[in-house]
Amino acid sequence: MKNKLTLQNLFKIFSSQTKLEILITIFDNNLTASEIANRLNKDLSTIYRHLVQLKNIGILKSKRVKGIEYFDFSSTKVFQLIENAIEFLNEINGEHVIDCSSLKECFFAKSPNNLNPDYVLDVRGEICPVPDIKTRKMLETLEEGKILLVIVDYPLSAERIPISVSKMGSKVLAKISEKAGEVKIFIQK
After folding, report:
1. Which of 6, 82, 98, 167 might form a disulfide with 120, Cβ 3.0–4.6 angstroms?
2. pLDDT one-digit tens code per residue, 152-171
3. Known active-site residue 128
4. Model confidence pTM above 0.70
């Protein structure tokens, strides 16, 4: 039975890191609880419990295909809400983008592959879903052929960003781990 969703409950849901990770994992995919648990490297029973809660309040919907339950957003407005919240945070906290396009060389962003990015998006210290959404939004603004360097220190985003940008049609040129826990992802639009 569906529980009534209130504004207070909605914000409570978005304060749960696990629920946010589930929502971002489901973006662009119809996934099973098992697939989500594997991608997030979390216990299946924990993931399924969160999925049922999200479904019961109407944020997610599910369908059964040959006896297997697949989960998806009940509305595109759910993801738009998360995107809008992140844009609001960028306005308040400032964006961490460096424009290297007018420089001869972006020295601090140099890679062993001699890739020279046009822009650097530093999302170190940010957790899911912020690095994923900021990367996607930044790529939407770039011209074809431009190179974006994304620096992350959140392991799940380091795994998800290359997958999601490839689905968008961009090309991952390199993924480099130079410092412990820090990953540089070079992406060409």
Report:
1. 98
2. 998 888 888 998 899 889 99
3. yes
4. no
